[in-house]
Amino acid sequence: MLALSRKIGESIIIDDQIEVTVLSITKDQIKLGIDAPKHIKIHRKEIYLQIQEENKAAALINNDTASKLKAMMNQAKFK
């Protein structure tokens, strides 16, 4: 992990495309502004982790559904 010190109004640039600027600092909070191309998805980490979990759950449901469908088709062949 790279750790940097920045003051209000100062920025960092990531991969020539993303600029992260420190907008304000209070006791326990830092506000960041992120300027990035529209095709780059930006999420807070807790939201990103929720999305990942939901995607995993959806994949399991799809796999389970596919397995059930396959079993039903196999049963239909034997009738």
Notes on the protein architecture:
With 79 residues, the chain is of the alpha+beta class. It folds into two domains: 39 residues, no CATH class; 37 residues. Helices cover 43% and strands 23% of the residues. The protein has one helix and three strands; from the N terminus they run E-E-E-H. It has a three-stranded antiparallel sheet, with no helix packed on it. A hairpin with a 4-residue loop joins strand 2 and strand 3. The model has no long low-confidence stretch (mean pLDDT 89).
Core attributes:
single chain, 79 residues, alpha+beta, 2 domains, elongated
Contiguous helical run count = 1
Strand content: 15-25%
| Average pLDDT score | 89
Helix and strand content put the structural class at alpha+beta
Q: Can you describe this structure in just a few lines?
A:
The protein has one helix at 45-78; strands spanning 11-14, 18-25, 30-35.
SSE blueprint and pairings:
Layout: E1 11-14, E2 18-25, E3 30-35, H1 45-78
